[in-house]
Specification:
By secondary structure, the protein is an alpha/beta fold. About 40% of the residues lie in helices and about 15% in strands. The protein folds into 2 domains: about 50-170 and about 295-340, D-Maltodextrin-Binding Protein, domain 2, CATH 3.40.190; about 170-290 and about 345-380, 3-Layer(aba) Sandwich (D-Maltodextrin-Binding Protein, domain 2), CATH 3.40.190.10. Strand 1 (about 70-75), helix 5 and strand 2 form a beta-alpha-beta unit. The chain starts with 10 loop residues before the first helix and ends in a 13-residue tail after the last helix.
């Protein structure tokens, strides 16, 4: 295929050009429903330039997948959004059927691993296992994903060096603010600025008991002592409202004006509330706390080839766009990760330093961070965190 210019266009340039001139169809066999995805995201087929190479899975996987039966998938998505996500997948791979379970609580990492140890596979794919990673490693439960065509499209920081997991999405945990009460120009540029600027005191800031969504990343980026000092000033100087509400509840408090700033908040969740009419927006001081949604395939399962095909598709440009269109998840794909059109609030994070919640932080620093945080939270009068009721 001939290029329109003498030099090949980069992806960003192709997208800009595509806004004016309809780009060529790089994926001739593009699933029909992807037309709707591209239309929703205001993109052209130029963005799928490399999708054919990414989706060229080994023929042996395909042959085996056709005999494996229904694939059992666990992701933290609403079922209606999962159904939107997999529509193009089923069009591309009609021989792979899927059974979905929302990956929350023990259904995410604990129950699938217990079943695996007992010789049963209640899930072929699950996500968010970082807190249980050592248990998964000890059980030899994770398939090596390095043979996926998309492996090198996952940033090194967001994949395991031995192929045990790969990120399929990125979440920036920032803060939401009431746009009627706070001007964008007065928002703090750094976390320290927010804490030490007197105008944010007096309960204008509300905090959920979720330090694992922001403080642990600062702990990793700036060091333990810096994070502890920041935390001490957070409670003793800023004195935010310490709330019992979870993430969605905190955003609602900001939307009704009970707090001016609610933290932590994720961009895709804020966007959902804004679409429902909430007068809020997203902002992040630097560094931007960033977490990855990781996915694993259970080793040696009866549907392991179907599982690898699914994860490869999910981490491809096609799958990443389908996921973003379905629920707003920010793509992890290296060619999409900084594309403003597939980010909920690009102005809040682009050009800023990111602070990742790495596997090392989760395994080795989370406990000491929680120990320090819980002591300060309780001393400041913070409400106890609600315990999940066990299902009978």
């Amino acid at each position: 295929m001939k290029h329109l210019r003498s030099k090949p266009l980069g992806l960003a340039a192709m997208l800009v050009a595509g806004a004016v001139i309809a780009g060529p169809t790089f994926a001739a066999d593009m699933p029909p429903s992807m037309n709707g995805v591209l239309k929703k995201l205001h993109l052209t087929t130029a963005v799928l330039k490399n999708s054919d190479k990414e989706l060229a899975v080994p023929a042996a996987w395909v042959a085996a997948a056709k005999k494996e039966g229904t694939l059992r998938v666990r992701l933290n998505l609403a079922e209606k959004n999962f159904n939107k996500l997999v529509k193009p997948f089923h069009e591309r791979y009609p021989y792979i059927k899927t059974e979905f379970t929302r990956a929350v609580g023990a259904d995410r990492a604990v129950k699938p691993l217990l079943a695996f140890k007992a010789g049963r596979y209640i899930a072929d794919i699950t996500m968010g296992i970082s807190g249980k990673f050592t248990d998964y490693l000890a059980a030899n439960a994770m398939e090596d994903l390095r043979s996926m065509p998309t492996w090198d499209k996952v940033p090194k920081e967001l994949r395991h060096p031995d192929g045990h997991f790969a990120a399929y999405g990125i979440v920036n945990w920032c803060m939401s603010y009431n746009t009627k009460k706070v001007k964008k120009s007065e928002l703090p540029k750094t976390w320290s600025e927010m804490i030490h600027d007197a105008k944010w005191r007096g309960g204008r800031v509300g905090s959920a008991n979720r330090p694992q969504l922001w403080l642990i990343m600062i702990w990793g980026a700036k060091g333990e002592q810096y994070a502890k000092n920041l935390m001490d000033d957070f409670f003793s100087t800023l004195k935010p409202q310490l709330r019992k509400e979870a993430i969605n509840g905190m955003m609602k408090l900001a939307s009704i004006g009970e707090v001016d700033i609610a933290m932590p908040s994720a961009g895709y969740r804020v966007k959902l509330q804004v679409e429902r009419g909430a007068p809020i927006a997203l902002h992040s001081p630097e560094p931007v706390p960033t977490a990855a949604a990781d996915v694993v395939v259970f080793k040696g399962g009866p549907r392991v080839n179907s599982a690898k095909i699914f994860v490869n598709w999910l981490t491809s440009i096609e799958g990443q766009l389908a996921l973003h269109a379905a629920d707003g998840t920010r793509p992890s794909h290296v060619d999409l990760a900084s594309m403003s059109s597939v980010m909920p609030y690009p102005d809040a994070v682009l050009g800023k330093k990111l602070a990742y919640r790495t596997l090392d932080l989760t395994l080795h620093q989370m406990k000491p961070m929680f120990k320090a945080w819980n002591k300060s939270w309780q001393a400041a009068g913070g409400p106890a965190r609600k315990k999940r009721k066990k299902k009978r």
